[in-house]
């Protein structure tokens, strides 16, 4: 183990910039995941009424913690659910980060195997590498979280401490385990995966995980019909509430990936057969060759679009209703709902930002992997503008139908809720802006790698095999 | 060099210097390529062969020295014009990597024509004719990863020649091939170039490949060590 | 084609049927393109030796209106000898005699410019390789031509590679030769 650790350290230290990028991004993702996990860990053991406030600090923070959103057990559950949902894009981001320089890393690990390392050793070394990056991220967040918690809560519950400790340890361990699992196939052969552009597989595994997660509440429900109220146990309550929502979202995500992948392939094949534009031809052929790669990043975008569009609709209806019903109540009550809605909106926004970051990282990675080929294209006189357009089209083409459908889905949720609240059909038109904004932002995120394209096509890249 | 004075060369480099980071790849290399001539640039690895080719093809700019193509200074042209020139007048073949892995062989060959504005159907028809000529017609719908090395290189050759360039730049075009595939690729290149009057700048470390050329220039340490014999 | 036996080649050509001297020469030159052409005198003396050794015999003499021609055919002994020879492996480089290396050493010993010699020799080799490449890539070149050209090309290529390595080690070689 010590030898493995030393090797892992040597490899990390001697690795190039791209490896550092992966480590840094992984640490960032781990920090985010730890942060969210820590808040959940503190909130879950809370039971009953609390008064959380930061009396010492100025007003701005007080508004953020909100007029009592965390005080009531009911709204606290809502916050927990929202946080768990927020974990999804973070996990997606981590998955995307693992792909930065993956080809390069796979080759390096294959070289280790060729040098005589056993598969278990290689897996341990790789796991240590990503485990260390996750540990760095998790440690930083934990330190800040502990400091923050001590200011907010004078005598935190022992359970909260235990939960925090668990999260702080679990994140790096999970990172290492996932990394070891994902390398299963790479380390099997000392020659590694020679083919650079191996098609990504469909989301079959996510379906299984989601089904597994959903099976838990299903079993609990079945048990409850025999044993009475399942909500009596705190764990069962958790399993039926947040866990079910989490599992459902995973399922919806996996379905979105399948749909996006399927439509990407169809769209790619159809366009490639007809187009007369070289940039569209290149983008379409790449899509039909590897539809899942695009679909996976885009699935998160689609999910955020559904949730975001739906949310804007729901929020509009909610505020209108609160204003109508509580017209004679105090401003405090209105602000209670408004803050709750705004917090949820902030969560959606944060997850959207994470998704955009993942999209940008994915585009950059796809460029970095292909840089020698791109340099050769430029040397052969293919204009950089064509390559740039092809790059943007790879994002734009498959996203268009997806965002349209997701936007429509979100609108339906919004219309449904608004109509339910107002007893007539109400269309929350501002929600229509969400899909448009999402589409535009995604193109911008993809466009952030255009400067990288300029660097990738430098003739110096021709010198590296 | 002995017959280079009588006619103006199509492509010429004088006293080229180029530094990559700390290493001087070229130090005062001069070379001339006549219209329709096949010139081999040989030398050990690190002698500056590829850098010379990159400078002559307008892919990189030399730090010092002059490159002229058909009477115009290549080293001073803006990138946009260079890119156009590479598309219209030049063809390139590398050891590998010049084919887009996701495109079929046919689309890969048709791509330069499409970039020049030829409708896709015409472009594919002309591409097919070139593939047929190089004996890879049947593999037209395969992607580069599904072809043998020799087939992929003959496809790359078709792509380099499909626009009817005046100069083809070939950088170790057979570097990854066995001797039989090497012979097929080189015979195809030499035949076509001679028939069409296309000049070829052939960078190779393999003397058997260099023997396909009319003339040889040998580089050592970034400068011409032996200017070749003319028949 | 060092050490190649004209006897056996003629025996081989006779194996496909009786033939006269001029015809054998023509068929030899056809079958082994780029080889040194056989002199008619050499064909004649070789045939006489084959007859003397009982490997071939005179079939008859005809004139066909032209000059008188003797037709030869292979004997059973000849066929046996041919089979034996064809199955025998060629000794791989039994003697390492090398004119180029000898010239390099002599030019070091006599204070000449070994490097210039190697350069000139290299150019000559390349020129010959270009000729052979032109022969084999010419339109309508048959496989026998291609293969025999390849044989020579590969040997020339091996020489070239050896010359390149030697040129790179001339300083060390000079020191060694001068010291001895």
Describe it.
The complex is a heterotrimer of chains A (465), B (231) and C (180). Helix content of chain A is 79%, strand content 0%. Chain A has helices spanning 2-14, 17-43, 59-65, 73-98, 102-114, 119-152, 158-182, 204-227, 234-274, 278-289, 291-325, 331-369, 371-379, 384-422, 433-447, 450-456. In chain A, helix 2 (17-43) packs antiparallel against helix 4, helix 2 (17-43) packs antiparallel against helix 7 (158-182) and helix 11 runs antiparallel to helix 15. The radius of gyration of chain A is 24 Å and the shape is globular. Residues 53-67 and 193-198 of chain A have low confidence and may be disordered. With 231 residues, chain B is an alpha/beta fold. In chain B, the strands form 2 sheets. Chain B has a 6-stranded mixed β-sheet with strand order 6-7-8-3-9-10, with helices on both faces. In chain B, strands 2-1-4-5 form a 4-stranded antiparallel β-sheet, with helices on one face. Chain B is built from 7 helices and 10 strands. The longest helix of chain B has 18 residues, at 179-196. Chain B has helices at 49-56, 79-88, 105-115, 120-133, 149-161, 179-196, 207-210, and strands at 11-20, 23-33, 38-42, 64-69, 72-73, 90-93, 167-171, 199-203, 215-220, 223-227. In chain B, helix 6 links the parallel strand 7 and strand 8 (199-203). Chain C is mainly alpha-helical. Chain C folds into 2 domains: 6-87, Arc Repressor Mutant, subunit A (Orthogonal Bundle); 99-179. Chain C has helices at 6-14, 21-31, 40-52, 76-87, 99-109, 114-137, 143-168, 170-179, and strands at 19-20, 56-62, 69-74. In chain C, strands 1-3-2 form a 3-stranded antiparallel β-sheet. The chains are: A mainly alpha (465), B alpha/beta (231), C mainly alpha (180). Chains in contact: A-B, B-C. Chain B binds chain C through residues 44, 186-187, 190-191, 207-208, 210-214, 216, 226, 228-229, 231, and chain C through 119, 122-127, 129-130, 132-133, 137, 153-154, 157, 160-161, 164.
